């Protein structure tokens, strides 16, 4: 009986080779791991530009133009690519959108569409492998490694950029990005310097190549340093941080903890003295008389911003509380009868004193008592509530706090403390983890002065 050959759909297909980023480095494949186009744009050309500075004089007009164009192209990224298109923090009329797309292309960081897709993925998948420049993969990777290495496109998290496809400026720039880059990054700054004061070569080297290098490295700091150094005043579950240093080199983008919590806010800095020129420029464009170029500037509700700040402060308080001695919780103390308290007051070197229904062992403090040994010894085996609360001296907040660390028991029937012991909600405020935090003036041992009784006439 003849055996038929297996049908084509049952034939086993060869295993697909894993992406080069998942393969070990060898002498045969190392060059495949490098994105040579990006490496040329962000490494080789800048290095060549630095080499050319050895033989190219830098004259004052070219220096001024290089600095001016640096800020223009940096704003194209921070105000345009980032806050306008990636996060839609504000809206812009056509002239401003053209300007931002033009100057942004001069920063040599990809098209608006490509940049925004990566940045939206960064926000959606922060600190995961789906984050295209996750700091979890190392500081250098988040700074420049993600650009110069060939990364598996299937790993990056997906995001929606369909809204950008309705903007003709974005569509045109993306379609013709190579030409836009060539003109805005190198030809245009050279033309300005050449036609303006005859420094063609200096315009290309300094206002073109070197300027773009500085803009690139400054912007890359948002992906690296802004996730590495600084404070986290609004949330600490993820890596973004606020730091004035990164703000200075990124035109205000360094207040990154705020930005990741409130990405739709056109501001990164919300305090008047914080450095955020991108915010100020957007605001100024919205105030142009007769035809403002920026409008619909979005800000997050200040109530929610302060909630986030307060919650972080509460976390910090909670962490500090754990390291402090608040005394043994009342619920863990034994209940002692008055007669037993009296019998144990001086036994085995103890020195027991009752204050507000709580029994304290003050034996280790007798010699250090600021009021002298005699006064504190006179209270041993007695109810010293009145003495401690103004009868002899109105003790300080610190004294009440110190006394709480000496408590060893609960006096049965002592000023309803047994009731407090069974109802922890009456013992004072709690931190976010449910632990009691005793506020100043709210210590159990603090008893207020009695209300004066009315006297009949």
UniProtKB/TrEMBL annotation:
Q: Where do transmembrane segments lie in this chain?
A: 34-51, 63-82, 94-115, 180-198
Name of the protein described by the UniProt record: Acyl-CoA desaturase
List, for all copies, the residue spans of the domain called Cytochrome b5 heme-binding.
333-412
Q: How does it sit in the membrane?
A: Multi-pass membrane protein
Give the source species: Cucurbitaria berberidis CBS 394.84
Signal peptide residues are none
What does the UniProt record say this protein does?
A: Stearoyl-CoA desaturase that utilizes O(2) and electrons from reduced cytochrome b5 to introduce the first double bond into saturated fatty acyl-CoA substrates.
* UniProt cofactor(s): Fe(2+)
Q: What class of enzyme is it?
A: oxidoreductase
This enzyme catalyses:
octadecanoyl-CoA + 2 Fe(II)-[cytochrome b5] + O2 + 2 H(+) = (9Z)-octadecenoyl-CoA + 2 Fe(III)-[cytochrome b5] + 2 H2O
Q: What CDD domains does UniProt report for this protein, alphabetically? A: Delta9-FADS-like
The record's InterPro entries line, in alphabetical order, gives: Acyl-CoA_deSatase_haem/ster-bd, Acyl-CoA_DS, Cyt_B5-like_heme/steroid-bd, Cyt_B5-like_heme/steroid_sf, Cyt_B5_heme-BS, FA_desaturase_dom, FADS-1_CS
């Amino acid at each position: 009986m003849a055996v038929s050959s297996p049908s084509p759909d049952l034939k086993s297909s060869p295993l697909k080779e894993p992406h080069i980023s998942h393969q070990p480095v060898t002498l045969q494949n190392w060059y495949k791991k490098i994105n040579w186009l990006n490496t040329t744009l962000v490494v080789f050309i800048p290095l060549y530009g630095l080499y050319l500075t050895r033989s190219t004089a830098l004259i004052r007009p070219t220096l001024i133009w290089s600095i001016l164009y640096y800020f223009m192209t940096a704003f194209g990224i921070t105000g345009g690519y980032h806050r306008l298109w990636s996060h839609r923090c504000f809206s812009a009329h056509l002239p401003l959108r053209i300007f931002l797309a033009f100057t942004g292309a001069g920063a040599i960081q990809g098209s608006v569409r490509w940049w925004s897709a990566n940045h939206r993925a960064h926000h959606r998948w922060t600190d995961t492998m789906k984050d295209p420049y996750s700091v979890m993969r190392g500081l250098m990777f988040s700074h420049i490694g993600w650009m110069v290495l060939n990364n598996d496109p299937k790993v990056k998290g997906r995001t929606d950029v369909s809204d950008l496809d309705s903007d003709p400026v974005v569509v045109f720039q993306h379609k013709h990005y190579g030409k836009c880059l060539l003109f805005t990054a190198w030809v245009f700054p050279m033309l300005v310097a050449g036609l303006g004061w005859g420094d063609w070569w200096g315009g290309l080297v300094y206002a073109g190549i070197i300027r773009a290098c500085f803009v690139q490295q400054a912007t890359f700091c948002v992906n690296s340093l802004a996730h590495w150094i600084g404070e986290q005043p609004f949330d600490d579950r993820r890596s973004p941080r606020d730091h004035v240093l990164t703000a200075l080199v990124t035109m205000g983008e360094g207040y990154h903890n705020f930005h990741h919590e409130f990405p739709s806010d056109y501001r990164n800095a919300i305090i008047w003295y914080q450095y955020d020129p991108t915010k100020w420029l957007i605001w100024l464009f919205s105030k142009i008389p007769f035809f403002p170029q920026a409008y619909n500037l979005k800000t997050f509700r200040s109530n929610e911003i302060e909630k986030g700040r307060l919650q972080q402060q509460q976390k910090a308080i909670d962490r500090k509380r754990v390291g402090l001695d608040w005394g043994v919780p009342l619920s863990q103390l034994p209940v002692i009868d008055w007669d037993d308290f009296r019998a144990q007051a001086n036994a085995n070197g103890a020195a027991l004193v009752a204050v507000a229904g709580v029994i304290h062992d003050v034996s280790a403090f007798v010699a250090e008592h600021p009021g002298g040994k005699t006064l504190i010894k006179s209270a041993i085996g007695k109810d010293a509530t009145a003495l401690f609360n103004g009868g002899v001296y109105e003790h300080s907040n610190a004294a009440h706090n110190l006394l709480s660390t000496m408590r060893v028991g609960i006096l049965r029937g002592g000023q309803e403390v047994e009731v407090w012991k069974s109802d922890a909600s009456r013992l004072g405020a709690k931190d976010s983890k449910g632990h009691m935090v005793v506020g100043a003036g709210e210590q159990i041992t603090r008893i207020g002065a009695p209300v004066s009784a009315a006297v009949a006439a």
